[in-house]
Amino acid sequence: MIAFIDVSGDPYSQSTESEFICISVVCIRKRSIYDVTAALHGLKRDILVNEYMEMKSTQLVNRSTLEHPDLNKAKFLEKLVRQCIDNMDCRHAAVIFKNSGDNQKSDEKHFPKHYVDALWRIEAIAREWKVNDVLVVIDNNTRKIDKYLAFAFNNYIYRSSGGSELVHILPVPLFADSETTAGLQMADISAGILRNYYSNNLHISPCESTFDRKLKDYYDIIKSRSIDRRISNFKVNGIFYSENTYKV
Question: Is 169 helix (H, G, I), strand (E, B) or coil?
């Protein structure tokens, strides 16, 4: 199994700049990596007429796209969700929270909480699917940040009580360019859907517009492909929205 991680929003910015943060995980069974990737490239080629285009949620998951289903972008997003994100060999997980505006960047000793929580959800999916080894692929930011994050990742796996529970995750995270990695692009789109869903309060408010209804539809698909499972004494919810202060 390969797990792709993408973060939507900047948790190290001020809350006025990036109010909601979503760390999204897309797990794909090894046997279906080729099929999902091929389907994604086919949709880019046939609808967007550019199979090398990098998909970004900011360009697709917005009001101007979702309220105009005749647009190619809207048609592409619809088929992407139905054919790739809703694939039987894909599972999704995410943590969504409000930006505290006071978060500490990772160093070799500090593995940010939202990444910790993402790994626990990956472990839950691995146990549900009974897979032995999971390769974690993280969207590339900057080489310096990636270096610290990689060190902190391994320190958490090897030197923490929580890390000892993550028996299926390989301690060799890969940092990849989302432009060339289909799984990371899917994680980015999922993060954009979930972040918009909660930032527009659709978890507590009725869906009044086409934009609201499409977001709710896509959210429900992602949620249906998530897994809630207990690990030791902890209940791990596949899609988790923190209503309390959440500091990474």
Answer: strand
Helix (H) or strand (E) holding 195: helix 182-199
Map tokens 């990636």 to a residue.
Answer: 146
Cα torsion 164, 119, 202, 104: sign = positive
Nearest alpha-carbon partner for 37 in 81, 74, 93, 84: 84
What's the first-to-final CA gap in the chain, in angstroms?
26
Average pLDDT over residues 218-222: 98
Q: How far apart are CA 226 and CA 95, in angstroms?
A: 12
SS3 content of the chain, % helix, strand, coil (to 5): 45, 20, 35
How far apart CA 7 and CA 24 sit, in angstroms, is 6
Mean pLDDT on 31-40: 94
Please tell me the total number of residues recorded for the chain in this structure: 248
The tokens for 193 are: 């859907």
